[in-house]
Amino acid sequence: MPADRRIQGFCCNYTASVSGEALRDAGLLPTGAVLERLPCTGRLEVPAILAAFEAGAEAVFVAGCRLDQCHNKTGSERAARRVKEAKVLLSELGISPDRLEMFFVGRGENEPVVAAAREMAARAARLGPVLPPAAGPEASEPQQAAAGKATAKKPAAKKAAAKKPAARKATTKKAAPKKAASGKAGAKKAAGKAKAKESTK
């Protein structure tokens, strides 16, 4: 497993009995894994999950209490619902929802938290970078799809540019009445000259 995979974990204060730093110093967490302890995972909002990806995380996991052991009763339930919502948004952004997962851990259990971090590091290694320099053959399928959508938008811009000559035609049509108006004025002058000649005869 590559050592440069950045994994962001959010852990309930009642699950892991020690801090993420202690687990990392003990060599239990994958290199690049960061564990943030929260008073309750139910306080974790969807924007915070997406912000972790924006900050460079290649995988994110939430480790909350088991549903029947939640200190705040419905905290883990709320966290699971928000993780589900964030997965939908990731799919819409062209990012694999497998990069995000919810885990339920018993109180004071460090091993499941470490296992969750390792699982997400393995997923990140399998899926590759979230945003590669170019979506080529080696890019993941969601990334290629996102690149395809971006490319598909370019012809639309050409269509918008193609509409500009139409605007010029419209301008030409507007200018046409002016020519007609000047033609009428010329006709009146010609008629006046003709009348003047007749009067001199």
TrEMBL record:
Residues 132-201 are annotated as: Disordered. The keyword Metal-binding applies. Residues 7-128 form the F420-non-reducing hydrogenase iron-sulfur subunit D domain. GO terms for molecular function: iron-sulfur cluster binding; metal ion binding; oxidoreductase activity. Keywords: Iron, Iron-sulfur, Metal-binding, Oxidoreductase. Residues 151-177 have a biased composition (Basic residues). It comes from the Bacteria. Pfam families: FlpD. InterPro entries: MvhD/FlpD. This is Hydrogenase iron-sulfur subunit.
